[in-house]
Specification:
The complex is a heterodimer of chains A (111) and B (114). Helices cover 0% and strands 60% of the residues of chain A. With 114 residues, chain B is mainly beta. Chain B has no helices and 10 strands. Classes of the chains: A mainly beta (111), B mainly beta (114).
């Protein structure tokens, strides 16, 4: 059964800290891994990763894929209260259009 | 330039009633997806529409769930004889076929079945 597991389930840090969120997967036919940020209800797209070892970066956020370890990390440096959200990881299957979603990491940034 | 819109934003219904949830995708997006997110859970795929092709309904949890997409645009998700376990946030997303992994999500409908 295809599955995506995220850790930790929740994380509370202080503003200015750096956090690392983890996503591991077991799927039969991997195409890409995606990170989303979910505030309130609608997730917004952050990154798509297809190749191992190539870092994607956007401001204070960065992410990298390790296909050998079947995992990805999402780093956020110099965290701000606006980074508080649920961060979702999803894996796109190569066999079809489906995305398999993790349960998310709830990140809380305290001022 | 509107994004994906959904209505209603919140729906409270009694067990056994039917509900209809609506999704307006981004103009020009031919792919449309419905997901369900229960409290503390990840997104659960329900159904996928692509252009005029037959939809993939493999994620629908029971025959009480159905969905239509009229004219390749607006979609309606219908839940008949609602049960308490149907309570969740129902999210709709759309994408260009060429970049279907970059999905744009609507704000969702929070369904509460009493």
């Amino acid at each position: 059964e295809d599955k995506v597991v995220q850790s930790p389930l929740s994380l509370v840090v202080h503003e200015g800290d750096t956090v690392t969120l983890n996503c591991s997967y077991e799927v039969t036919n991997f195409r890409s891994l995606l990170w989303y940020k979910q505030e309130k209800k609608a997730p917004t797209f952050l990154f798509m990763l297809t190749s191992s070892g190539i870092e994607k970066k956007s401001g204070r956020l960065s992410s990298i894929l390790d296909k050998k370890e079947l995992s990805s990390i999402l780093n956020i440096t110099a965290t701000q209260t606006g980074d508080s959200a649920i961060y979702l990881c999803a894996v796109e299957l190569g066999s079809n259009y489906q995305l398999i979603w993790g349960a998310g990491t709830k990140l809380i940034i305290k001022p | 330039g509107a994004g994906v819109s959904q209505s209603p934003s919140n729906k409270v219904t009694e067990k056994g009633k039917d509900v209809e949830l609506r999704c307006d995708p981004i103009s020009g997006h031919t792919a449309l997806y419905w997901y369900r997110q229960s409290l503390g859970q990840g997104l659960e795929f329900l159904i996928y529409f692509q252009g005029n092709s037959a939809p993939d309904k493999s994620g629908l949890p029971s025959d009480r769930f159905s969905a239509e997409r009229t004219g390749g645009s607006v979609s309606t998700l219908t839940i008949q004889r609602t049960q308490q376990e149907d309570s969740a946030v129902y999210l709709c997303a759309s994408s260009l076929v060429s970049s279907r992994n970059e999905q744009f999500f609507g704000p969702g409908t929070r369904l509460t079945v009493l």
